[in-house]
Amino acid sequence: MGRKKLYNILLREGEREELKRNLRKGKSSARSQTRARILLLADEGRDDDEIIDILKVSKSTVCRIKKRYFEGGLDLRYMKKPAVEPL
């Protein structure tokens, strides 16, 4: 029996187009492109294991990106790793 999806990603049309446009430009970092690909594949209905196999990323990466999208939308500032405050 499979696990229930914790974060079901359903992109709005504008979000989907923005992600595709950023991938086509090719000027964003590899990390940003991977985030975009994770969200696009999840939006297509691919499960986490498929995304992991296709993109060669870890399960925690897929879960973390989906969680960040779910909590903050496509705000790319939010999708980045949180900054650590200097002591």
Describe this structure in words.
The protein has about 90 residues and is mainly alpha-helical. Helices cover about 60% and strands about 0% of the residues. The protein is built from 5 helices and no strands. Helix 1 runs antiparallel to helix 2 and helix 2 packs across helix 4. The longest helix has 14 residues, at about 30-45. The chain is globular. About 15% of the residues are buried. The model has no long low-confidence stretch (mean pLDDT about 85).
User: What is the strand content?
Assistant: under 5%
Low-confidence stretches: none
Average pLDDT metric: 86
Helix-strand string: HHHHH
- Give the termini separation: 46 Å
Helix content: 55-70%
Total helical segments = 5
Q: What class do helices, strands and sheet pairing give?
A: mainly alpha
- Radius of gyration, rounded? 13 Å
What composes the largest sheet?
A: none
What is the β-strand count?
A: 0
**Quick one: overall form?**
globular
